[in-house]
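Repro:
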Amino acid sequence: MIAGAHAVVWVRQDEPGNDACRFADAEGGYLIDGSSTDAKGNILPYRIRARGDGTTRRARIRAKSRIFVRRAPDNTWRLNGTPAPAVSGAEDIDLGFTPATLTLPIRRLKLGIGDEAEIMVARLDLENDRLTPLPLVFRRIAEEEYDCLNADTGRTSHLVVDGHGIIQRHTGQWIAQT
């Protein structure tokens, strides 16, 4: 766990935008609390609560309206109270507009160097107000480096993390400011 709190500010590399986020221990798990600004100037505040094992418990996003996502201990999901069976089995949320959510599987999986894991995350599709399955393959290539393959697109992203597993660089997309 992260002792106390850890803050990070990311700047987009592929288009205008930024994200300011805080990671903290909370309620026997941890809290991710942030605000992302996209290329159009839209501000998306978000809050994610994870259980002690690192799995997503719930997320709240303020977009055009408030969005509530919940994951039950049996890995079933609800979006604004409606079941989302397409993502049953996923343990992590992916908001798509912030690198903060990549920290969830990185910390939870605890991969050794050279190890990899194939997982499905629940990806929030803001445009269509739904959760969709996103298959990812994480491979740890060095102490603080991972490759993340999007199995749907075949695209691999290179990730550099800090000692807490928090993204410092998502090559071509995000970079943390020091």
